[in-house]
Design a protein that fits this description.
By secondary structure, the chain is of the alpha+beta class. The chain has two domains: 56 residues, GTP Cyclohydrolase I, Chain A, domain 1; 131 residues, GTP Cyclohydrolase I, domain 2 (2-Layer Sandwich), CATH 3.30.1130. The protein is 36% helix and 23% strand. The chain contains seven helices and seven strands. Strands 5-2-3-6-7 form a five-stranded mixed beta sheet, sandwiched between helices. It has a two-stranded antiparallel sheet with strand order 1-4. A hairpin with a 5-residue loop joins β2 and β3. α1 packs across α2 and α3 packs across α4. The protein is elongated. The protein binds guanosine-5'-triphosphate (GTP) and zinc ion. The site of guanosine-5'-triphosphate has 10 residues, from α4 and α5.
């Protein structure tokens, strides 16, 4: 029986098997789009597409907050903004399942503990590798850091291009969507907010 979780033991490259009904669904889509799923070039496409989608959606298999469980408390009393900016990410919009490609800036004002900076990017990717709207992605990243790190403030700004607007529909290339979520100090204190936005380059 085929399974999406285990490796394909017949395949030396260990690719996961794709269930027949998933492949059939992609064949139906190819046919509906106007091509012949039985032609040679498309024979392996259904399993490739399915595996690609499993990879785009890896976030469903993880709890991004686990990345924030390892904290460092010996930071020499550092209590200023920590900012990771220009973090590239990819997601897919839940309306069209089309790529969202952008960058994020994630900042927090620590209380008594910090996390390894790579973990902020891991949290972002954990939520981005799902079907999303940009507003929810922004909120989920900020809320996760807020509730698991308990800092004085969190600021997340995401800027992205939506392929559903550039490659189809309104077909307006070059347009960017910006979303932000400010929490704690960055929400309450205009000067902290200004400072973090300036450091982010906005
Ligand atoms: N707010 C928000 N809207 C999004 C996001 N991603 C895609 N959309 C929009 O979702 C909307 C879906 O609108 P619908 O009218 O249901 O779908 P549609 O007929 O395909 O719309 P068009 O894209 O205008 O052709 C579109 O306006 C998209 O631009 C997102 O992350 N946030
Ligand atoms: Zn879309």
């Amino acid at each position: 029986m085929s399974s999406l979780v285990g490796p394909d033991e017949d395949d030396p490259r260990g690719k996961p098997l794709v269930p027949d009904d998933v492949q059939d669904a992609i064949r139906t889509l190819i046919r509906w789009a106007g091509d012949d799923p039985a032609r040679e070039g498309l024979l392996d496409t259904p399993s490739r597409v399915a595996r690609a989608w499993k990879e785009y959606c890896l976030g469903y298999g993880e709890d991004p907050s686990v990345h924030l469980s390892r904290v460092f408390e010996e930071v020499g009393g550092y209590n200023e903004i920590v900012l990771l900016k220009d973090i590239p990410f990819q997601s897919h919009c839940e309306h069209h399942m089309a790529p969202i490609i952008g960058k994020a800036a994630i900042a927090y004002l620590p209380t008594d503990r910090v996390v390894g900076i790579s973990k902020l990017a891991r949290v972002l990717h954990g939520f981005a590798r799902r079907l999303q709207v940009q507003e929810r992605l922004t909120a989920e990243v900020a809320d996760c850091i807020w509730s698991h790190l308990r800092p004085q403030g969190v600021a997340v700004v995401i800027e992205a291009a939506h392929s559903c607007m550039t490659a189809r529909g309104v077909r307006t290339p070059g347009v960017g969507m910006i979303t932000s979520r400010m929490m704690g100090t960055f929400l309450d204190d205009p000067r902290s907010r200004e400072e973090v936005l300036r450091l982010m380059g906005y």
